[in-house]
Amino acid sequence: MTRIKGGVMAQKRRKNILERAKGYRGIRSKKEKFAHEALMRAGRYSFAHRRDKKTDFRKLWIVRLNAAVRENGHKSYSTFIAKLKKTGFILDRKVLAEFASEHPIIFARIAKQVA
């Protein structure tokens, strides 16, 4: 059986790693070893931060809702959400925050019905 050398595939793999690391600072975009390490670390961070993004947006919606709720005469965000659940509204925080920031008249109507 003939011997197969891995030069072509190795070059392809190195080229792929360096292409993916393009734009990284310094040696991380030029040397294969450092580029590979940077890519592995970036992958771990992106995996973790995809989870964190959901938490960050929920925090943002709560801050926006709290400001809008206080403008419309309610005591606080938590009491507003409690009353909202008692009255049977099925709107989530994302939609309510969008109404509060982009359509304040609609949000004012919702806040009045909840009160």
UniProtKB/TrEMBL annotation:
Keywords: Ribonucleoprotein, Ribosomal protein, RNA-binding, rRNA-binding. GO terms for cellular component: ribonucleoprotein complex; ribosome. Signal peptide: none annotated. It comes from the Bacteria. One of its GO terms (molecular function) is structural constituent of ribosome. Pfam families: Ribosomal_L20. GO terms for biological process: ribosomal large subunit assembly; translation. The keyword Transmembrane helix does not apply. Binds directly to 23S ribosomal RNA and is necessary for the in vitro assembly process of the 50S ribosomal subunit. It is not involved in the protein synthesizing functions of that subunit. Belongs to the bacterial ribosomal protein bL20 family. This is Large ribosomal subunit protein bL20.
